[in-house]
Amino acid sequence: MLDNEKRAKYIVEITMLERAKPVPKEKVEELKGGIGKKMISKMKKECVECPVMEKSVSFVECFTCKNFLRRIKGKVHCAGSPL
Fold first, then answer.
1. N or C: which end of the chain has fewer CB within 10 A?
2. Which residues contact 23 (CB under 8 A, 6 or more apart)?
3. DSSP 8-state secondary structure symbol assigned to residue 82
4. Residues in CB range of 21: below 8 A, 6 or more apart
5. pLDDT of 4-48, one tens digit each?
6. What is the pLDDT of residue 3?
7. What pTM does this model have?
8. CA nearest 4: which of 82, 80, 79, 83?
9. In the chain, what's the furthest Cα-to-Cα distance?
10. Could you give the CA distance from residue 26 to residue 13 in angstroms, rounded to a whole number?
11. 61 or 1, which is more confident?
């Protein structure tokens, strides 16, 4: 077992939405340097049930969170530390 696998406290399913979920502008700005507009647009239409914040959030927010470890086959591995 890898060290990163031990750190994943939660494995959360990604769900697709028809319309983009609202995302704070500062979260989108964090991504603009490394990810293209088309990918950011796609990420806004995905959401996860965040176990830390206990609500549904856009994948953009999840991806920029300090608890985000990796995304594999439609699932997010989350460290689950308090924010």
1. N
2. 44, 58, 60, 61
3. -
4. 44, 45, 47, 56, 57, 58
5. 455 889 999 999 999 998 999 999 998 888 889 999 999 999 999
6. 53
7. 0.83
8. 79
9. 38
10. 24
11. 61
Give the whole-angstrom CA distance, residue 37 versus residue 60: 12
Q: What b-and-e string marks burial along 48-82, b requiring 16 or more CB atoms within 10 Å of the CB?
A: bebebeeeebbbbbbbbbebbbebeeeebbbeeee
Among candidate residues 23, 17, 10, 20, the one with its CA nearest the CA of residue 50:
10
* 4, two tokens: 């990163």
User: Hey, where are the domains in the chain?
Assistant: 3-78
- pLDDT the model gives residue 34: 87
83 pLDDT tier (thresholds 50, 70, 90): confident
Yes or no: say if 58 and 23 are a contact pair by the CB < 8 Å rule: yes
